Amino acid sequence: MEPRFGTDFSQVRVHMGSEAVQMNKDLSAQAFTYKQDIYFGAGKSPGKNDLTAHELTHVVQQTGATRLKSLDALGIQCSGRKKAGQKSFDVRHKVQMVPQLTDMSCWAAAAAMIVGWRDKISINPLQVAARSGYWNQYEEGYNCDDPTIFSVWGLIPESPQTYTVDDFREMLKTNGPLFMIGAMGDGVHVRVVTRMYGDGTVDGTMVSLNDPLPKGKGKVKSCTYRQLVQNQEATARDDLGLPGFEGIYVAHA
Questions:
Q1: Dist. CA 113–CA 187, nearest whole Å
Q2: Is the dihedral of CA 17, 23, 26, 32 positive or negative?
Q3: In CATH, what number does 91-252 get?
Q4: What is the mean pLDDT of the chain?
């Protein structure tokens, strides 16, 4: 497969043992990648198949070669138990809800929430939908198929990767609310992460998101960090299907 990718995969390490199987089971995944290590779930193995091609894509997208020995190394504890000495935390940002309206996408609604927070302005959802007033300057940022929309909105995309609880918390704390692309039904949906709190474990850490749906209202939703990771994994497996994005799932101001 190297000619297809134009990349040297000689340093890639493949894991298929009981530990890899258990980690995939805990994530409800068939396989996942961390840096240059690919972990296959039960009954899965490398070969000339879509799953392997997908995971090799993540190897290309990620950098470094730090070996992941267990989900604990990522802060993803299989037992969900709190580590000794681990302290509870609460990181939150006050972000105005911008609902998705009939003639606008969740992309624009989510981006508007972050821009409103960043620029410290009150948001009129009708103006956002009509691309009028303050929002006229973002006219070219409403096409979700255009990979330049992040630069139009002034958002910074992060390379796709599996974040530790600590890393995700630090990103939220340092950069403010997060524009996050996740799976919903047969497609993708964008929500804004505004808060993260809990004990530092994947099952004991909660994430709050501003969801532009239902249309015209929006709703604050919460899930565990494990559920958030699983949702991201589902999106990754579907490959988004959007030209130019190359699997970008998180962006921020």
A1: 21
A2: negative
A3: 3.90.70.10
A4: 78
Q: Closest Cα to residue 32, out of 48, 16, 9?
A: 16
Q: What pLDDT is attached to residue 62?
A: 65
Placement of tokens 């950098």 in the chain: 63
| Per-residue CA distances from 187 to 181, 183, 211, 238 (Å) | 10, 6, 15, 8
In the chain, domain spans: 2-64, 91-252
CA 197, CA 206: separation in Å to the nearest integer? 5
From CA 155, how far away is CA 166, in angstroms rounded? 22
Q: How many CB atoms within 10 Å of residue 43?
A: 7
The closest of 55, 240, 68 to 145, measured between CA atoms, is 240
Q: Which helix (H) or strand (E) holds 53?
A: helix 50-61
Within 8 A by CB and 6+ apart from 4, the residues are 53
Helix (H, G, I), strand (E, B) or coil at 35: coil
**What is the rounded CA–CA span in Å between residue 123 and residue 88?**
33
**Phi and psi based region of residue 121 (left: phi greater than 0; alpha: psi -120 to 50; beta: remaining):** beta
Angle formed by the axes of helices 50-61 and 225-238, to 10°? 110
46-99 pLDDT, tens digit per residue, is 887 778 877 777 777 664 433 333 444 444 444 345 555 668 999 999 999 999
